[in-house]
Amino acid sequence: MNKRKSFRQGLPAALVILSAAIFAFAQDKLNTRPNQAGTSAAAIDEKGADVKYTYEFTQPKFVIRHIVLEHDAAGRGTVTFERLNEDTPIIEKIELSPTALGRINAAWQALQFLDSNTNYQAEKQFAHLGTMRIGMEQGTRKRVAEFNWTQNAHAETLVNEYRRVADQAILIFDISVARENQPLNAPKLMEVLESLLKRNGLSDPQQLVPLLDDLSTDEHVPLIARNHALRLIKKIRGK
């Protein structure tokens, strides 16, 4: 589905900013590929069956009302997200970095997901914050677990990692929209990026360096945003 161009026309600045900010929750231009060391051996079973991982978030009243993230054992996949009052979902390719994939694999392994029937839903309900679903499919085995709040540390770690992946992917998409059609939104997006960076809200900030480097020399973007991009590169590289 390639509705990207038509969707980008006239996208309100408020939605662009809020989409990243609400989910303190990619990307077809990121070229970092996980190496073999970054992929857990547990991602493939003894028979060599490929694994498919999924994460889904739904809250119809949020600016980003629906997110579906899918990836394989190597961390390659897609993120699909839908905005409030928009009928057209946006699909972007993602490629998890070895670092992010390692953290995600560790959480899956700790859950022993396919061998467990644990209910991750806490007694206390927080349905207003949205519903999350995590799933794994390996060969003929498949399981999906749903909850809106959990006290299981490994399940919480997993959804937080996936939220960071989604936030990073959506932010990259919004920056691309701004560069092509709404360059005056770029300064605000740099502020959003810095806010996410400060609170560890990004999956792997190192993946953003090539994009920020390119942005810093884009004369279609306001100078304040270009200078901010350079400062963010220094912060990321200093981590």
Class from helix and strand fractions: alpha+beta
**C-alpha Rg (nearest Å):** 18 Å
Please give the alpha-carbon distance between the first and last residues. Answer: 37 Å
The whole-number mean of residue pLDDT values reads 85
Number of domains as seen in the coordinates? 1
Number of helical segments with 4 or more residues = 7
Please give the order of strands in the largest beta sheet: 4-3-2-1-5-6
In total, the number of strands is 6
Q: List unreliable stretches of 5+ residues.
A: 1-48
| Amount of helix | 25-40%
The quaternary organization reads as single chain
Largest sheet: 6 strands, antiparallel
Taken from the alpha-carbon principal axes, the silhouette is globular
Task: Please trace the helix and strand order, writing H or E for each element.
Answer: HHEEEEHEEHHHH
Strand composition percent = 15-25%
